[in-house]
Write a structure and sequence with these properties.
Layout lengths: L1 H19 L5 H8 L8 H20 L21 H17 L3 H7 L7 H22 L5
Length: about 140
């Protein structure tokens, strides 16, 4: 129960940070990518802040023998670059650039009824299902 409550609180803080940082607004992402037009560099500052917090957070947390609410850490073990490592991020980036949404801000934008959210979320969920189906048929591990 404590684990679920902590996850809910962490998710709410994350969502609030996305809204405050303007990431619930797809135009913010699209303007960042429009370097020849309405370029808005503020997304770079949001991303830099996220990288710094994540870097420090991982350094602090991984000094502990285990997480607070789990028996062990679940860290990636794969070292090789394969097709799914290249294709997945490419598709993610294309979708992010076209729609202005990535999964976190899209879910955060749902209650705000941001333009395109009601189209993006079902399409994202369909894409996740399709990716799992394809990877199971091919024999690869789903992401």
């Amino acid at each position: 129960m404590f684990r679920v409550a902590f996850s809910l609180i962490a998710g709410l803080i994350f969502g609030l940070g996305l809204v405050i940082g303007g990431m619930a607004n797809p135009a913010k992402v699209q303007n960042f990518l429009d370097v020849a037009g309405t370029f808005d560099p503020s997304l770079a500052f949001v991303m830099a802040g996220a990288v710094i917090v994540t870097f420090v957070g991982y350094r602090l947390v991984l000094q502990e023998p285990s997480p607070l609410f789990a028996e062990q850490f679940h860290l990636p073990t794969a070292k090789e670059v394969d097709a799914s490592l290249l294709i997945g991020p490419a598709l993610f980036g294309i979708g992010w650039g076209l729609s202005g949404f990535c999964p976190g801000p899209a879910i955060t934008s749902l209650p705000l009824m941001a333009k395109g959210t009601l189209i993006f979320l079902p399409a994202m969920l369909a894409g996740v299902g399709l990716a799992r189906f394809v990877t199971q048929k091919v024999g690869a591990q789903p992401p």
